[in-house]
């Protein structure tokens, strides 16, 4: 748990929290824990059910996967961005990618199941949380589609 | 009233002929990526190269193969050379990038409109480039760095598919060390050694702070990338008439005669290639096939 | 004319049509012939009189000569690891055009705006234009596809000619009223036998024009067309016309103002000689809008729309006037009989109440 003033200061750049009511932030602060990761530390591995949701304050993380023997970096996440959103939905099977730290990270960590049960017991908060989550997922989906069209090199040529 | 013939026969060489190319010698060749090369050209013997302004292009002729429009990617402050960064996408561009030092190409131009170097004076400048689209913006960077005090902050956002498809990598890191200059590079797909951003270029808007009303944006890349870029800028309240784009269309003549490059009321060759988004707004969007 | 070194081109019958060909004597003219035209049709027909110019325009226009369909831009030669570029043939032919109609003069004016008066000058067109003498013959027999009266371009030539004739046949008399439009015209006239025109001949000549005007039935509402087309990019009529259009490009070939060209480079087997040719091109061709990742205008619908919208709308933005002179060639020579006046009328009549704006917001 983190003090509300501190929480507000920590999450100033988090666009995902725009539109949250003061009482929402208090609920979140109550569930938040400050965590630190060193460079090259693995935050979660592919297939792992890590069950945590993060708001990154500083530093950066890369989501990566090994495909056909080639490690591929698919997205970097930086201060002001969220990570581990799948822990907020009741999904099985764990993470699709590995998250590796590329520069030292300071983040707020939330226990996914606790956050989810808060959403269920307070539907108004839950709605705002899910709306924020949907915004985040929409951005990721748009970005994935932009990657899919290979817009810099051969736009429109479907990638094999 | 009809223009009446002079009694003597007319010789076509008597008029300045916009269809006639002039020879230029390749002075250096720099390989940028697996399919992209920069050639630096100079005129043989005496005679100086035509002056160009950032944003202009030439029609480059590879002997026997054909002619294509190529943006000038070099330094407008160096009048002895015209540089072209060429990506191999067809027979003519492939012929051009396999030319060696000492070989000749022929060129017509420079043609077309300039990036808004005057409108940008005193303002912050945001450059958004995708893939080969950094090449037409490089003269802008040279110009601003050469006249650093005349411009505000310079922010260069550059996206490419993968690290090995980035142009001018050494220069990018040099530019990032210039005063009041920020360079952010992102790729769609990284490899383990990559230290920059991974994600689409539009995401980089999140990592710079610019005042939309005091910023001139210049964007160049495939049209689809520019459409995504524009949407990102609009979401951040950048005015349409302060966003400049370099457009691409089929081009055969570069002087408004062949009709191929028309986009709505514009000829990309002579009214462009640089336009404001305000001008282009109604005509962009592939699905409409305008 | 021959003596002055001009090749005279005028109406002749070849390929079952009346179009420009070499004229050496009066016998070369299509005496007693006319044309019957309609959407997708052109037929020669006998007249009941011996008129020399009693027909409406055929497939060829001044464009075929001033802006030729194929011309070499240069030759290049490879020598010792480099190459040089030689100039083109250089000499533009000097030609006198006989039987030019008012709509064709208007069309040449439209091409002047594009190829001479804009930012760049096309040397090929400029020299051919400057090297031409124009002897207009006022139109007496418009066809059913003509609509010059709607476009304000005819049927009587008002300017742009060296000499303008009006053919007057009345009972047993067959006379020509000659009007002088330039010093060259006056000079030409001075070398011929003529007499001062009588009041009566002038009156009869006016009647020829009045009759021609009355015979033009086709209407085209030009006012507001530029805006109409821009506001209706997504009108269902485009799908309708696309289902009939063959994208053959005939309309662009016969249109006297369509100026689009392509450039072709070629070299011989040894590679020592290369040439560049300029050839007419058409916005109906799929490859016309090709850029390295594909064509911008894939569908026939988008290509027909581009052609019509350019001609009747963007042309105003680009050159301050319409690109259409109302000659009707695109109607007669369309194998599917597509009639632009009908297409525009349909867009106008059935503009959907909730039309999708061209702005693409």
Describe this structure as you would to a colleague:
The complex is a heterotrimer of chains A (160), B (290) and C (361). Chain A is an alpha+beta fold. Chain A contains four helices and six strands; from the N terminus they run H-H-E-E-E-E-E-E-H-H. Chain B has two domains: 19-111, Translation factors (Elongation Factor Tu (Ef-tu), domain 3), CATH 2.40.30.10; 124-246, Nucleotide-binding domain of ferredoxin-NADP reductase (FNR) module (Rossmann fold), CATH 3.40.50. Chain B is globular. Chain C is of the alpha+beta class and 361 residues long. Helices cover 30% and strands 24% of the residues of chain C. Chains B and C meet through loops of B and strand 5, strand 6, helix 3, strand 8 and strand 11 of C.
Count of extended strands of chain B: 15
Output the CATH class name of chain A. Mainly Beta
Shape of chain B: globular
The largest pleated sheet of chain A is described as:
6 strands, antiparallel
Query: CATH top level of the largest domain in chain B?
Result: Alpha Beta
Please report the two chains with the greatest interface, counting residues with C-beta closer than 8 angstroms to the partner's C-beta: B-C, 57 and 78 residues
Topology:
The complex is a heterotrimer of chains A (160), B (290) and C (361).
Chain A: H1 4-10, H2 22-31, E1 33-37, E2 42-44, E3 52-67, E4 70-78, E5 82-83, E6 98-111, H3 112-121, H4 123-148
Antiparallel strand pairs in A: 1-6, 2-6, 3-4, 3-5, 3-6
Chain B: E1 22-33, E2 36-42, E3 57-62, E4 66-71, E5 82-87, H1 91-97, E6 104-111, E7 124-130, H2 138-146, E8 154-160, H3 169-176, E9 181-187, E10 197-198, E11 215-220, H4 223-235, E12 243-246, E13 262-263, E14 266-267, H5 268-271, E15 274-276, H6 277-280
Chain C: E1 7-14, E2 17-22, E3 33-38, E4 41-46, H1 63-66, E5 70-79, E6 82-86, E7 95-100, H2 102-115, H3 123-130, E8 132-137, H4 148-151, E9 163-170, E10 173-180, H5 183-190, H6 199-215, H7 225-230, H8 237-244, H9 250-254, E11 261-267, E12 273-280, E13 290-291, E14 294-295, H10 300-319, H11 329-332, H12 340-349
Parallel strand pairs in C: 1-7, 7-8, 8-9
Antiparallel strand pairs in C: 1-2, 3-4, 5-6, 5-12, 9-10, 11-12, 13-14
């Amino acid at each position: 748990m983190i003090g509300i003033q501190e929480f507000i200061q920590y999450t100033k750049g988090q666009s995902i929290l725009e539109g949250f009511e003061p009482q929402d932030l208090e609920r979140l602060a109550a569930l938040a824990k400050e965590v630190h990761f060193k460079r090259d530390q693995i935050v979660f591995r592919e297939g792992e059910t890590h069950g945590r949701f993060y708001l990154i304050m500083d530093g950066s993380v890369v989501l990566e996967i090994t495909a056909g023997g080639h490690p591929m970096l698919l997205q970097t996440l930086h201060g002001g961005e969220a990570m581990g959103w799948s822990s907020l939905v009741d999904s099985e099977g764990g993470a699709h990618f590995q998250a590796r730290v590329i520069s030292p990270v300071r983040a707020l960590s939330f226990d996914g199941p606790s956050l989810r049960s808060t959403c269920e017991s307070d539907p108004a908060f839950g709605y705002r949380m899910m709306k924020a989550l949907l915004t985040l997922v929409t951005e990721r989906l748009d970005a994935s589609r932009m990657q899919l069209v290979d817009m810099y090199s051969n736009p429109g040529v479907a990638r094999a | 009233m009809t223009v009446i013939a002079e009694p003597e026969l007319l010789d076509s060489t008597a008029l300045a002929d916009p269809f006639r190319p002039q020879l230029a010698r390749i002075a250096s060749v720099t390989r940028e990526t697996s399919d992209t090369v920069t050639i630096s050209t100079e005129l043989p013997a005496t005679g100086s190269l035509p002056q160009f302004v950032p944003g202009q292009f030439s029609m480059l002729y590879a002997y026997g193969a054909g002619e294509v429009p190529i943006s000038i990617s070099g330094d407008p402050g160096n009048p002895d050379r015209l540089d072209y960064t060429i990506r191999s996408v067809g027979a003519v561009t492939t012929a051009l990038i396999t030319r060696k030092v000492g070989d000749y190409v022929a060129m017509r131009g420079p043609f077309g409109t300039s990036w808004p170097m005057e409108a940008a004076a005193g303002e912050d400048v945001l450059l958004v480039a995708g893939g080969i689209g950094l090449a037409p913006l490089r003269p802008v960077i040279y110009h601003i760095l050469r006249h650093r005090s005349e411009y505000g902050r310079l922010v260069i956002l550059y996206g490419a598919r993968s690290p090995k498809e980035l142009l001018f990598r050494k220069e990018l890191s040099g530019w990032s060390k210039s005063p009041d200059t920020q360079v952010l590079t992102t790729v769609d797909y990284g490899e383990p050694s990559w230290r920059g951003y991974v994600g689409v270029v539009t995401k980089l808007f999140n990592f710079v702070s610019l005042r939309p009303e005091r910023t001139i944006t210049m964007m160049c890349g495939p049209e689809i990338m520019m459409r995504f870029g524009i949407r990102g800028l609009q979401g951040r309240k950048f005015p349409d008439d302060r966003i400049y784009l370099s457009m691409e269309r089929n081009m055969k003549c570069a002087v408004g005669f062949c009709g191929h490059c028309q986009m709505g009321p514009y000829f990309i060759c002579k009214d462009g290639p640089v336009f404001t988004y305000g001008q282009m707004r109604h005509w962009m969007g592939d699905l409409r096939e305008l | 004319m021959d003596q002055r070194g001009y090749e005279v081109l005028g109406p002749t019958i070849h390929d079952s049509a009346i179009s420009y060909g070499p004229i050496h004597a009066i016998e070369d003219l299509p005496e007693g012939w006319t044309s019957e035209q309609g959407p997708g049709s052109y037929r020669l027909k006998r007249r009941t009189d011996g008129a020399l110019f009693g027909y409406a325009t055929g497939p060829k226009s001044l464009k075929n000569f001033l802006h030729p369909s194929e011309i070499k831009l240069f030759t290049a030669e490879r020598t010792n690891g480099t190459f040089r570029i030689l100039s083109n043939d250089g000499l533009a032919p000097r030609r006198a055009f006989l039987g030019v109609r008012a709509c064709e003069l208007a069309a040449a004016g439209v091409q002047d705006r594009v190829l001479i008066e804009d930012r760049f000058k096309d040397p090929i067109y400029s020299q051919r234009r400057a090297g031409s003498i124009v002897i207009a013959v006022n139109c007496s027999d418009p066809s059913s596809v003509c609509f010059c009266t709607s476009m304000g371009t005819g049927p009587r030539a008002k300017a742009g000619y060296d000499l303008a004739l009006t053919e007057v046949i009345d009972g047993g008399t067959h006379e020509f009223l000659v009007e002088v439009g330039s010093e060259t015209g006056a000079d030409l006239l001075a070398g011929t036998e003529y007499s001062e025109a009588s009041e009566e001949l002038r009156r009869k000549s006016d009647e020829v024009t009045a009759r021609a005007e009355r015979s033009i039935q086709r209407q085209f509402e030009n006012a507001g067309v530029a805006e109409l087309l821009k506001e209706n990019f997504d009108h269902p009529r485009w799908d309708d016309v696309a289902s009939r259009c063959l994208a053959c490009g005939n309309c662009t070939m016969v249109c006297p103002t369509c100026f689009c060209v392509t450039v072709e480079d070629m070299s011989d087997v040894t590679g020592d000689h290369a040439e560049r040719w300029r050839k007419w091109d058409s916005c109906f061709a799929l490859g016309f809008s090709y850029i390295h990742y594909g064509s911008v205008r894939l569908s026939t619908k988008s290509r027909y729309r581009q052609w019509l919208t350019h001609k009747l709308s963007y042309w105003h933005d680009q050159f301050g006037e319409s690109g259409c002179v109302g000659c009707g060639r695109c109607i007669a020579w369309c194998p599917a009989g597509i009639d632009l006046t009908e297409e525009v009328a349909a867009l106008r009549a059935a503009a959907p109440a909730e039309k999708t704006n061209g702005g693409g917001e």
